[in-house]
Amino acid sequence: MPTITEVLGNEGWIKGVGPNYYFPQDYPHLHLTVANGETMVDDLRDIRRHINFLGITFGDHQNGRNIHIWPLPNVNLRERVSKFLHDDIGLDIATPMQRFINTLTGLGADM
Prior knowledge:
Shape: globular
């Protein structure tokens, strides 16, 4: 059984310092933190119960645009994330971001 770090690495996530992972490496990116990256999991979906934080981040220069995804902060999140993916990020990056967001959280974001 693989670790969280191995599963995410196989999916193209970059391991940061401590429990931080990024997809893709450049901004904007998904920023994920987990309780322990060495925890063994069955697959990507199994990581959900180990997530401490998942968000879309733009870097310090655009901090006001960051979107907190997990833990689920409000009921309008699905629409906000869907609109953001469709309007603000190129399709080449938004498509895998959407897949990861939906698999890791069950949010159901749709471009």
